[in-house]
Design goal:
This protein has 12 helices and 9 strands. The protein is of the alpha/beta class. The protein folds into 2 domains: 137 residues, 3-Layer(aba) Sandwich (Rossmann fold); 159 residues, Aspartate/ornithine carbamoyltransferase (Rossmann fold). It has a 5-stranded parallel β-sheet with strand order 7-6-5-8-9. The protein has a 4-stranded parallel β-sheet with strand order 2-1-3-4, sandwiched between helices. The radius of gyration is 19 Å and the shape is globular. It starts with 20 loop residues before the first helix and ends in a 6-residue tail after the last helix. The relative contact order is 0.17. The model has no long low-confidence stretch (mean pLDDT 94). The protein binds phosphoric acid mono(formamide)ester.
């Protein structure tokens, strides 16, 4: 079994900013081990309960945390339909967390529509809290999967050029990916979106402070030229549910689509990623090409989340 001096035991996962490169590399090494020998870890979460509190819809994050918990022999305590819990009657996040702690839960995986929800839950809980998406703010475990995908498909994260296209304004994956990618050397980021959908100032500020190379691409005419520069195209859907004004959403809908014609401008080995779900921004005609990395990206969620749960709750409690 894997062992190391890196210790994530009992840690919260609130933001991608909270990790070092060494910790992420350790996580990735263990995720690779889970891919090869996951069965050797099947009892490592025995007697551990993982609450899955999902106040927003999810397929991948919920199902992969559920499967990861079970694969390690732990017990998942799902709370995935807010309308069937006391939250529908107005129970606060505070009280929900306190109840779960009282029932002997060892960890809470939380998806919530509010920015700051995971941080708030982590501050009040005495058990680890894993942010499974906090409004438009962050989705740190998705960014771990994203970089693990790049590592698996490209062989290295250092020196990678990532072009993010789509709704970068309301995205939670793009901030987390930007923060985590900044740990690696020679990374370049290209944000391709009209100004109304551009990356938020907090992300730009972070990148400036760390001298990470990034560029905003706002003109459609510049996209083809940018595509030639990048190794990975990261597509995001319009976050319809986060637009304060539905008419603004309707105006921007369909303003970008990644299809074979667009990729004809890119390098032939470009990797196309998407956290999914997709709506109409990523054409299914890409699915059968070697450029489609997004189904593998979703698949890597299982070993990555197994590794994360193991490090936080399982055997490695000291160096
Ligand atoms: N990538 C992602 O978070 O997908 P879900 O919303 O289905 O969990």
């Amino acid at each position: 079994m894997h062992s190391s001096r890196i210790n994530l035991h009992g840690r919260d996962v609130v933001s991608s900013r909270d990790f070092t490169r060494q910790e992420i590399e350790h996580l990735f090494a263990l995720a690779a081990e889970m891919e090869r020998h996951g069965e050797e870890y099947r009892d490592t979460l025995r007697n551990k309960k993982v609450a899955l509190v999902f106040v927003e819809p999810s397929t991948r994050t919920f199902q992969s945390f559920l499967a990861a918990t079970r694969a390690l022999g732990g017990e998942a305590v799902p709370m995935a339909d807010p309308s069937m819990s006391a939250m529908a009657k107005g129970e606060t996040l505070h009280d929900t967390v306190k109840m779960l702690e009282g029932y002997g839960v060892d960890c809470i995986v939380l998806r919530h529509p509010s920015r700051g929800a995971a941080k708030y839950a982590a501050e009040m809980a005495s058990i680890p809290v894993i942010n499974a998406g906090s409004g438009s703010q962050e989705h740190p475990t998705q960014s771990m999967i994203d970089l693990y995908t790049i590592l698996r498909r490209r062989g290295s994260i250092d020196g990678v050029s990532i072009g993010a296209i789509g709704d970068l304004r309301f995205s939670r994956t793009i901030p987390s990916l930007s923060y985590l990618a900044s740990l690696f050397s020679g990374v370049s980021l290209y944000f391709m979106a009209p100004s109304a959908l551009q990356v938020r100032p907090e992300v730009e500020l972070f990148l400036k402070e760390r001298n990470i190379k990034y560029k905003r691409i706002e003109e459609t005419s510049e996209i083809a030229e940018t595509l030639r520069e990048i190794d990975v195209l990261y597509v995001t859907r319009l976050q319809k549910e986060r637009f304060p004004d539905p008419s603004e959403y309707e105006k921007l809908r369909g303003s970008y689509i990644v299809n074979r014609e667009l990729l004809s401008h890119a390098r032939s080995d470009i990797g196309v990623m998407h956290p999914l779900p997709r709506v109409d921004e990523l054409s299914p005609e890409i699915d059968s090409t070697p450029n489609a990395w997004y189904f593998d990206q979703a698949k890597y969620g299982l070993p990555l989340r197994m590794a994360l749960l193991y490090l936080i709750l399982g055997g490695e409690s000291s160096g």
